[in-house]
Amino acid sequence: MGNPNSGKTTLFNALTGLNQKVGNFPGITVDKKVGACQISQLASKNKIDTEFIDLPGTYSLYPKSMDESISFQVLCDPKNEHHPDVNIIIVDASNLKRSLCLATQVIDLKTPCILALNMMDLIESDGVKIYLKLLEEKLGVAVVPINARKKIGIGNLKQAILNVKERENKNSFVDIKNLCPNLIEDIQKLINKASDYNAFQIACNYKTITDFSKQDKDKLDSIISEHKFIAKRLQATETVRRYKAIDQLLEECVEYPENSKNNSLTQKLDNILTHPIYGFAIFLGVLFLIFQAVFSWSEYPMEIIDNSISQLSQFVANSLPEGALNSLIVDGIIAGLGGIVIFVPQIAFLFAFIAILEDTGYMSRVSFITDKLLRGFGLSGRSIIPLLSGAACAIPAVMSARTIPNWKERIITIMVVPLMSCAARLPVYTLLISMMIPAEQKWFIFNLQGLTMMGFYLIGFVSAILIAWLMKYIIKSKERSYFVMEMPTYKTPDWRTVFYTIIEKVKVFLIDAGKIIIAISVVLWALSSYGPSSKFDEIERKYQNTENAEVVIASEKLESSYAGIIGKSIEPVIAPLGFDWRIGISLITSFAAREVFVGTMSTIYSVGDADNTKSIREKLMSHKNPETGEAFFTPAVALSLMLFYAFAMQCMSTLAIVFRETNGWKWPVIQFIYMSALAYLASFVAYQLLS
Amino acid sequence: MKNLCELKLGTKAIIDSFSDKELALKLMEMGCLPGEKIHIERKAPLGDPIAISISGYVLSMRKAEAETILVNEIK
Known about the structure:
Strand content of chain A: 5-15%
Strand order of the largest sheet of chain A: 1-2-3
Oligomer: heterodimer
Number of helices of chain A: 33
Largest sheet of chain B: 6 strands, antiparallel
CATH topology of the domain at 8-176 and 237-255 in chain A: Rossmann fold
Structural class of chain A: mainly alpha
């Protein structure tokens, strides 16, 4: 464990390599990273299996957010399933004073500890001298100098883990028992073997410990009120005394050079990067680069994936005997798999950029310059990257909202990100705009088709901001929003960290969201390829002797499939929007992914087009309204349909990732309902006004 | 005594106390302790949040948070 920006994750990667598992801590969405490693004992050559846990970065044991609460619970509740045998406290040597606040707190808990002194070589070259032996003696724990980035000292650290001793520490840094002796004794009676400081920590924060029973908490309640214990006051006293002890310790153990360090490079960079004009200009440039990467660079790998998937499905389709199993594997499972893997390049690109921005220290500057703009809308400076990358794809965007420390701001960001016009809406818009507006039509010098397209991107952005603003008032949060954070000095990115971030995010998506996506694709496949068998037989018989009838058969089968039946049964509901049952079917199938809409429409409007020679646009344009005999796709219908796609939550992958990121069905369900309602309302108003 | 926001950019001061008990804890554990030297390093383009320099590193915070830090200007 350690402070944010102390090199904790880099050390974790150096220790465990690719043997990592990422999950959530039970009940909340805080990344739980567990990694394994074998340490060989020098003397006996025995290999010892060790498991490492990467705890969320924190400045003290007192929890202020969900992330920090995890570190507190793991360390202060001995019954916690992750309570460690050895604590490795990583300390940034160039920021010793502040790092030691947390470190001495953990040492005072009296569990076995090791202090890993990171970036030791850096500060030595700055002329700072740390007397390690003395520091070790004063702290009472082993101190191992390391450089996590350069993998220096990792071997020594591993040996120190094996050699760590249970120690009865002589003195605590802060004599906490002196502050409230009776209270600590009473708590120690309740919780066996708790050290003085551990008892004090429990007294301050027992309400947040999820493992404690109601009974224990009631007992603690009465102890607290009996001793008239006021946590806040004593915590403040403790912190002041702790820093005094640290000051004294540093005076003895560390020698600073006369002219202390200056971060002139960081200052110069900040003069530019947080400048009112250059700062925003550079940030826009960075955004543009990210957008380019996620939007167009990822096109090539996506195409390769797309081709390989279709080759795979063709291969399987040809090599398996025809029938239901063939169809299930090809159209259900492989198609679903393809729908998942296709997102990997976008996720990889976005997180490569985010990891670089985080690692260099630029991300905190982005928050710094954009915080004021977004705060009024219930978002924070950290929401800007998820929000704007949502314009390429909501899935990596929702995942990237994890960098928002405040729960409420994170939820709001996740809830509105899918309103941004993602790449999958593009084919739908392109088709419908081309039907609604003639290509040559101009408004002054602008091409009207292009303008409409831009308008729909704007609609996405504006509605996202407005909904965020509404949610600010609706969502209640007990967690207070803090913006106090460090602006670390700029560093060159650590490419290993970037690499591990990409691997981790891709893995999380493929495994956690992938399971749900595969399940939904199989259901969708079953709905659209099965129907009452008598109907299906009838269609087969009807075209038995017709040549080249595959397309027509496919079309009629889709009509009488369960998806078709659902499409027809929802027709009364969607009729006020100007939609018929054919569009109803497309709405259902495009839940797999929005772009499926185009394919489904093409299949379903193939009735009576035996040669399948017309383009999809011609098919739709020639479709007549059976009652009036006029073209069915009037501008009103097309606009209504486009608005529906702008707002509706038509993407199972996004829902799956929102489920994963919020750890439950509550938020994805709310999101699905509010977006559907919004879509229905917008389409209804548009159609009724125009038709 | 002033609050931190009333300081001019770059003017050095010493932290005296805090007006918000809960925030005080968070600020103290991040190194903002009574008696420490502090100054405003820079302001965000829209004037809020601000970046402060304290014991060799830089923290950013919103104005509302900085207002809870009471300081004495060094003359």
